[in-house]
Amino acid sequence: MTVLRRFTPSDLFKYNQVNLDRLTETYHTNFYFHYFVNWPNLCHISESPSGDVTGYIVGKVEGTGKRHKGHVTAVTVSPEYRRIGQASTLMKVLETISDKVYNGYFVDLYVRASNTVAFDMYSKMDYHLFRRVLNYYSGEEDGLDLRKALSRDVNKESIVPLGRDVTDEDDFGD
């Protein structure tokens, strides 16, 4: 059984095994510290009984008005702990905080277009394709911008598809 708790800076010395997956983006230490300082309640890990990090989520809140949102910057689970609901549990924590604490309109995230397993998981969690961002991942692979409306977005305006592909340079204010 795993335990969920807030991600702490000292966990950066224990999460390497989780980041070895080729689909996981790994960032520099200062990047993670920025999140810990600004949005500590949106950074969580799952931990095994032996203390090993089995997965984590790092997120933030940004935007104003109807673009006020929770954003999943990174979510990953160690291969041996996949398909048992850890990613969904981590996502629900971020969604609940984005909704109840920050009163956001929606949560968004990006997933590699080739990552059909993740796309299917997010679809089951009520995420919808908002737009495709061309060459989003290192200029080599398209990213899919997925969104889930929160309780504040009663009319679900935030998940209406854009209807066209964009580049990362396009500015949508979100």
UniProtKB/TrEMBL annotation:
InterPro entries per record: Acyl_CoA_acyltransferase, GNAT_dom, NatB_acetyltransferase_subunit
Location of the N-acetyltransferase domain: 2-151
Gene3D superfamilies reported in the protein's UniProt record: 3.40.630.30
One Gene Ontology molecular-function label: protein-N-terminal amino-acid acetyltransferase activity
GO CC annotations on file: NatB complex
Superkingdom field: Eukaryota
Family annotation (SUPFAM superfamilies): Acyl-CoA N-acyltransferases (Nat)
Keywords: Acyltransferase, Transferase
CDD domains (alphabetical): NAT_SF
Leader sequence segment: none
Coiled coil: none
One Pfam family per UniProt: Acetyltransf_1
Official protein name in the record: N-alpha-acetyltransferase
Origin species: Anaeramoeba flamelloides
